[in-house]
Structure formats: C-alpha cells, structure tokens
Design brief:
This protein is an alpha+beta fold. The chain is built from two helices and six strands. A hairpin with an 8-residue loop joins strand 3 and strand 4 (about 75-80).
Length: about 110
C-alpha cells in the first residue's frame, strides 16, 4: 500500500490522486489503535477510561482523542466476558493498555 503513492501514473495503480491514496493509507493504518497504559493515570490509562459497572462483565469506556481540540469523548459499553476481575484490578491499582481493532465489516474488537 505504501509504495502506491510513488506509482500513481502507472496503469495498474488503484489510485488516481495522492489524496485518494492518503485516505486509503490512513484508513488502513488506523484499523489497529494502541493505547499505552500508565499506573499514575486514573483508570490506568490517559486516553481510555474504563470503569466496571458491577453488572456481571459490563464495562463503560470513554475514549478521548489526542487530536481533537475540544477533547472529543466517545463513550460506549462493552462486555468483557473474560478476566473481568483482572481488568477491574489493573484499572484501579495499576496500568492497562488497550488495542482497538476495527474490522472491515464494521465490528470492533477490544483487547485490554
């Protein structure tokens, strides 16, 4: 994908402009997003704040964008049916890193 930006004039190139290539490259790059945890941040991570709701394996997450000027917050609830106690413990007493994987079918995978 990265070499297509240098071969836009080639007949086999799927892109006709640099802007088309750049949008496809960014879409591909941001399918996997990694947030590094830190023990001195609330909930164990600066940009991802997850709290256990107490309802079996349900967590409520707030994700802040590091690029938004108005500190955009996206909130959602997700069930983590595995290692609920460990995730809750590390959010409270340690650090926890997250990987968000966006699939082409529109689904989202969260790996704490």
């Amino acid at each position: 994908m990265s070499s297509h930006q240098w071969t836009l004039e080639h007949p086999s190139s799927p892109f006709s402009t640099h802007e088309q290539w750049l949008k496809a490259w960014r879409d591909h790059r941001f399918r996997h997003v990694y947030f590094l945890g830190s023990h001195d941040e609330s909930c164990g991570c600066q940009l991802v704040q997850g709290t256990y709701t107490g309802d079996q394996d349900l967590f409520e997450f707030k994700v802040r964008s590091p690029y938004a000027k108005d500190k955009l917050v996206i909130s959602f609830r997700v069930r983590i049916p595995y290692q609920t106690e460990q995730v809750d413990y590390y959010q409270t007493y340690g650090s926890i890193s997250y990987v968000f994987v966006f699939k082409e079918n529109g689904s989202l995978y969260l790996h704490p």
